[in-house]
């Protein structure tokens, strides 16, 4: 170990690091910028070969704004190995002394076993907010270690029910995609629809029986298809002759027989139209690359897995045994056909190899966790993914819990599922519209305004009610709760945002002009709290992305509105000496709220 006392006094090295690291790129989240400072300090404090990452976290406001917690763990690493440090406290002190000079930090203190508490500079917070107002919130985008990701979400099964789980997958997947996009990651939004499999045999056979030449004459809606699918399944289960015909139909379809291919394509098209109605209302965009897309890539995937010695014969099927799992992953069925897992393996390889994705994210209910664990393990063993699952390229399963009905049981929509999902959204909108009319808005607004606001609030409420919970927990679907204008709901938050917009409007000031000429001062403690929270937006997005947890952003948004309320009730805005600064703070709050909405897939409203 190098003599620490020498490095102790010399901060020149750190200073030069600062010049490179901070002057050249004052970007990334607040936490990332602090981490850069501490990285420089750590490098000046301990030997390079320790290669420590700065551990920075927001801390209890009694101690400061942020804390660096490296001293304790460093001490356990260097203790008894000839270091001149006598304990964690002196290490903490050295870390503190070696922090490069920076306008970010106002003061530091040492606490407990070497924690370095940081108080940020108020001027710097104010300056950063002001800069964002002028240069745009994009300048606050966090930095993620990847350039391209696949988000595989929604993914309903054609001709089978599209259930509430698919709605959850759609909402959660869309938010994750938006947050990654905001962080400058290129996102390939993939709808991995179940458009292949034996169910098509029975459905097509049944349709042909009911309507000869169905493939050219059909003008069905998805509701009809679902009813036919159910009927065909029943028939399949009790009529052995039909069953045989259905199985032959599968062969014809997979063999590419024209009539069958056409009928299949037609069924897919009808379903697609049904899904589009849901996506359109939700404002979600997806590119369909369904299971059938990966068919041509399955053989090469199985071959790679076989060549790596992973595939074994078991009871006539070809399988991969995965350590710790009771059942193996079947990759070729007994009849030689492929299945869900074969497709997923081929898709994973395709996404890595052809699409060059560095992160592949799958959004499905928790019930599929095992499946993905097995697929990912196989991919690691064949060398498609690194064995260390902290490294990129990476595959992650984003599981979520159930949606429950009022009766505490699984929330079920009846037979015509897709339409019911649309109905659900429509009902949210209808209720919002009624509430607006009740508040007299029909006299003030045009019909179009009324419609647009009801949609924004209604659909926003459905989304927010889903996203605000940790995705792994089950939640109860309850219109009254999600449409309440008090409490942690989208309605409350959207109104809060609209109210801020109206404060600015009613001030009569030209906010664009103020942005250029005015200055933010965070004089009052409630202003400082609000300002710091605004600045933490980027690191919250970063955290939500890294841990794939949209609820983190919801919590941030709710707290933001709480801090704003506190600020607004304790600090006079219009007509005060601090009017300009406070109006700018209102504007910054509105901008950040809007961007939270945007990332959550919620359309902001400006009037209420
Ligand atoms: N279609 C599947 C289902 O409804 C979800 C597909 C998820 N994506 C995947 N690559 N397996 O359960």
TrEMBL record:
Residues 32-120 form the Arginyl tRNA synthetase N-terminal domain. The keyword Nucleus does not apply. GO terms for biological process: arginyl-tRNA aminoacylation; post-embryonic development; reproductive structure development. Keywords: Acetylation, Aminoacyl-tRNA synthetase, ATP-binding, Ligase, Nucleotide-binding, Protein biosynthesis. The keyword Signal does not apply. Its EC number is 6.1.1.19. It catalyses: tRNA(Arg) + L-arginine + ATP = L-arginyl-tRNA(Arg) + AMP + diphosphate. GO terms for cellular component: cytoplasm. PROSITE patterns: AA_TRNA_LIGASE_I. Gene3D superfamilies: Arginyl tRNA synthetase N-terminal domain, HUPs, Isoleucyl-tRNA Synthetase, Domain 1. It comes from the Eukaryota. Belongs to the class-I aminoacyl-tRNA synthetase family. Forms part of a macromolecular complex that catalyzes the attachment of specific amino acids to cognate tRNAs during protein synthesis. This is arginine--tRNA ligase.
